[in-house]
Design brief:
single chain; about 400 residues; alpha/beta; VC0802-like; Rossmann fold; 10-stranded mixed sheet; 7-stranded mixed sheet; 17 strands; binds adenosine-5'-triphosphate; binds magnesium ion
Length: about 400
């Protein structure tokens, strides 16, 4: 079908009053980023909906991109034609040809913003309804809950026809809730946690701890590939690699086995917190799920959390593994996550970590370490890169991305 534009309906953001402008602006920016492959698409953000004028771009590809953008309730590909009754009729029949299957019911739903148009809404409904009956004599019209709703809008600049309404991703536009640091391992849970945080509008930056040579290049690549899987929801994600080898060796040498894991996690938390401060984040997000492993019992969470007051968002904390896997499959991270490249935690993991670590003991063992110095050195040596759907992007941080993002607003 020769769709010429797509009408996007907002989700919750229409209820956000004053902030609406920011929401729409951010949504436009996210749409622009997700559609980088289609620079010809023009974006017009209006108060209650957004119009994407395709200018020849492939509608299927654009629609696929849109299904991943949070803040969109649903969208409809439309055809704009001149306000000529014969042309409108022919286009309506073309759409019916695509939509109709034997047994389906239909109705025509007309809106008329241009009151000078020769037919009023009732007359146009009737005119197009009859045209459909002529071609499909057996079809049933159904006013309440028809299978096919043929929508026609007569506006000043043309007539717009559509029948499809595609469900959007829901949620809030990524970035409208502020920024958070996602602790991203190579596992199943943290990418899902990142996805869920983005769904509620959090712009995530991925923080990954690597301990070469104990951890392999493939383990790092796996974390980057997982980040690339999260990128379509927003465009580009900052990937922050933290060198963790010195800290892990130091902990291994000076801390008894049972407390290795707790203290390692506390270091990860402290470092992520520092990075969050440096990069103007508000929260930390991780993939902890209650009771899943020793580090995720409530006493463990208490001991690990003790190093910071920063809110820790744990989107999968109450989910069963099976539920997390379901989501991981939906967002296509599962197959990557189960690749067998060990990350830093697995390699240094003691056979029997404490499930009820005591904070006083943790503090006592940590007093053997130069906590501040270790954290500082790790933070100084972080490597920041940008990852989009295709993987690593070798450009410096793109501050100019704010301009030219949408073509017109309100
Ligand atoms: P995941 O599947 O996300 O790895 P997990 O069930 O394996 O989770 P843990 O290994 O105990 O759980 O890790 C708990 C959380 O700690 C992870 O979800 C992640 O947020 C964070 N984390 C663990 N290892 C790393 C790492 N190497 N880099 C960054 N964050 C990490
Ligand atoms: Mg893990």
């Amino acid at each position: 079908m020769n769709y010429t534009e797509i009408m996007v309906r907002y989700g919750e953001l229409s209820t956000k009053g004053k902030n609406r402008f920011t929401f729409i602006q951010r949504l436009a920016q996210n749409v622009r980023q997700a559609l980088v492959a289609y620079p010809e698409v023009k974006i017009y953000g209006k108060k209650d909906r957004m119009h994407l004028v395709l200018n020849g771009a492939d509608p299927t590809g654009v629609c696929q991109g849109l299904t991943k953008i949070f803040g969109i309730q649903n969208f409809s590909p439309m055809i704009k034609v001149p306000k000529d009754l014969e042309i409108i009729k022919a286009t309506a029949l073309e759409l019916m040809k695509e939509a109709y299957e034997p047994g389906l019911t239909f109705k025509v739903n007309t809106k008329r913003a241009d009151h000078n148009f020769e037919l009023d809404t009732n007359a146009l409904n009737l005119f197009l309804g009859n045209a459909v009956f002529d071609v499909y004599p057996e079809i049933q019209a159904q006013m309440r809950k028809p299978d096919i709703t043929l929508r026609v809008e007569i506006r000043k600049e043309g007539a717009y026809l559509s029948y499809l309404t595609v469900k959007g991703a829901g949620g809030l536009p990524v970035g409208t809730s502020g920024r958070g640091m996602l602790m991203l391992s190579g596992g199943i849970d943290s990418p899902v946690a990142g996805f869920l945080a983005m769904k509620r509008g959090v712009e995530i930056e991925a923080v990954h701890f690597a301990s070469p040579p104990y951890t392999s290049v493939q383990a790092l690549k796996k974390a980057q590939d997982l980040t690339a899987k999260l990128a379509p929801y927003v465009g580009t994600i900052q990937f922050i690699e933290v060198p963790f080898t010195e800290i892990q060796e130091e902990i291994k040498n000076k801390v008894p086995q049972g407390y290795l894991m707790t203290i390692t996690r506390r270091f990860m938390m402290r470092i992520t917190d520092e990075i969050k401060n440096l990069r103007h984040g508000l929260v930390i997000i991780n993939g902890e799920s209650l009771g899943q492993v020793a580090s995720q019992t409530l006493p463990s969470m208490v001991a690990i959390n003790e190093v910071t007051n920063t809110p820790i968002i744990r989107p999968v904390v109450t989910m069963d593994k099976i539920e997390i896997i379901d989501l991981a499959e939906k967002i296509d991270t599962f197959q990557l996550s189960i690749q067998p490249f060990e990350d830093c935690c697995t390699i240094f993991a003691p056979p029997q970590p404490k499930t009820k670590p005591q904070v006083e003991k943790v503090q006592f063992y940590e007093s053997r370490l130069d906590v501040e110095g270790l954290v500082l050195r790790a933070v100084e040596k972080i490597i920041v890169s940008q990852i989009n759907v295709n993987g690593l992007v070798n450009t410096p941080e793109n501050a100019s991305a704010e301009k030219d993002l949408f073509d017109d607003l309100l």
